[in-house]
Write a structure and sequence with these properties.
Layout (H helix, E strand, L loop, with lengths): L1 H20 L3 H8 L3 E5 L2 E6 L2 H10 L1 H10 L3 E6 L4 E3 L17 E3 L15 H12 L7 E4 L6 H11 L1 E8 H13 L3 H9 L3 E5 L8 H16 L3 E6 L11 H7 L3 E4 L5 H10 L4 H7 L7 H18 L5 H7 L10 H12 L3 H5 L5 H17 L4 H7 L5 H17 L1 H14 L1
Parallel strand pairs: 2-3, 6-9, 6-10, 7-8, 8-9
Antiparallel strand pairs: 1-2, 3-4, 5-7
Helix pairs in contact: 5-6, 7-8, 11-12, 11-13, 17-19, 17-20, 18-19, 19-20
Length: 426
């Protein structure tokens, strides 16, 4: 009896080792290692902690588990602790999936990009978007990043409208919600088919997937499958792939495997054109454009406020009225702390982390970039810069500036990003 138990235990360890050899180490540690392994009636029974884990493992790792079990002459079943044994989802079962937002096919609109007001800094990314919308491209996925309000979502909307064929556009939050719902409803295979059955796939705000390991794994597989099928992929985020937090290096490298392009915040001329398009008088737009933050959402709100005031009061909005009406919006002189907070938002990092003891790669790089920007955009001493960036000493600031200057020589994207931040702070 004891010998039989030892043999069974040895076999289970061999099965575990065989599964681990065929899987990514992170996926094995996160999903397979916590399972309880057992063999009953020539079947490998894997017991999960909850139904969510059972559903995900059955959908994402079914092929590996089935192949390894077959090597030992076993079938595979997945059970939930305290529940009856449930067989792995059968591909022959007919599944249906209906997204919360219906998807329609587009015929392509030549003037779709006219809504985007372009400056010289954004000519490259706009050209890439137009090229992708015109047909299949070799640089998929197109990864667009920039601070809030710079126009990333508008470009994604323009691509959706201009692209011919079936286009699927989701926000990062929608993708997480729909994937989770498909697991709960046991329609994950239908969800996979739905996402892959398109000509162009657009995911807005990729950073919403951060820290959600199962969703990230599914998303990574989706990107690889779409790219292999020659489909167009468009992704937007608030930071470059290497600066996104909550993603492992494998997924970061996948996101950066196509064309990475940044979107610069609206310049004074872009803000002026946006205001005039919304019906703001040219003289008012000229004067207040330089006193509004470079945030497209804020500019749209300012234009709406002026337009609504003119309609309700039945009078034109003069500069004096605009200054009174926008007293809570128009910028005053920029303080160093305000500059740092603004840069934190644009770089997608927390102000508390930058000024605290955060040592992650993204936070350290952002902090060092801010020191370089403050040095070039203000008359502050290095000691004052260190104080604003979390009470760092003079030597730390000198080291940080030296490191960034070295990086700028080989990283043109980083150099352009720093130049944009300097322009915004002046």
């Amino acid at each position: 009896m004891q010998a039989a138990a030892m043999t069974k235990m040895t076999n289970l360890e061999q099965i575990k080792e065989a599964v681990a050899a065929k899987m990514d180490s992170v996926a094995f540690t996160s999903w397979i290692a916590p399972l309880q392994f057992d063999v009953r009636d020539n079947t490998l029974v894997l017991t999960a902690q909850n139904q969510f884990s059972a559903d995900y493992i059955g959908s994402a790792h079914k092929n590996v588990l089935t192949a390894v079990a077959a090597q030992f002459g076993l079938g595979v079943q997945i059970a939930v602790r305290g529940a009856t044994v449930a067989q792995i989802a059968n591909d022959n079962n007919v599944q249906s999936f209906a997204p919360a937002t219906p998807v329609v096919a587009h015929n392509g609109a030549a003037d779709a990009f006219d809504a985007f007001v372009c400056c010289d800094e954004n000519t490259f990314v706009l050209s890439a978007c137009k090229k992708l919308a015109a047909g299949a491209v070799s640089f998929s996925p197109l990864f667009i990043y920039g601070p809030a309000g710079c126009g990333k979502s508008m470009l994604a909307d323009c691509i959706e409208t201009a692209s011919a064929g079936r286009t699927i556009k989701m926000s990062g939050g929608q993708f997480v919600s729909e994937f989770t719902r498909s697991l709960h409803d046991r329609t994950v295979f239908a969800f996979k088919d739905f996402c892959r059955n398109c000509n162009t796939f657009i995911l807005d705000d990729v950073q919403a997937l951060a820290g959600k390991r199962a969703t990230c794994e599914e998303f990574a597989q989706l990107v690889m499958d779409l790219r292999a099928a020659g489909k167009n992929i468009v992704l937007t985020a608030n930071a470059a792939p290497g600066n996104l937090t909550g993603f492992d290096r494998r997924i970061q490298s996948l996101l950066a495997s196509g064309l990475v392009a940044d979107v610069a915040a609206p310049t004074a001329n872009v803000k002026r054109v946006m205001l005039m398009r919304a019906g703001v008088a040219s003289d008012v737009a000229d004067t207040i454009a330089s006193r509004i933050a470079g945030d497209g959402h804020l500019i749209g709100g300012v234009a709406m406020k002026i337009k609504t005031y003119a309609e309700l009061m039945g009078t034109n909005v003069t500069m004096d009225v605009a200054q009174h009406l926008l007293a809570d919006t128009l910028q005053k002189s920029k303080t160093p702390i305000a500059m740092v907070k603004s840069m934190c938002e644009k770089l997608g990092v927390s102000y508390d982390a930058v000024c605290g003891k955060g040592r992650s790669r993204a936070v350290v790089l952002a902090r060092q970039m801010m020191m370089v920007v403050l040095k070039n955009a203000t008359n502050m001493s290095l000691t004052e810069i260190g104080r604003v960036c979390g009470d760092r000493d003079h030597a730390t600031v000198v080291y940080a500036i030296g490191q960034v200057e070295k990086l700028k020589k080989s990283d043109l994207v980083l150099a352009a990003q720093i130049n944009q931040l300097i322009a915004d702070c002046k």
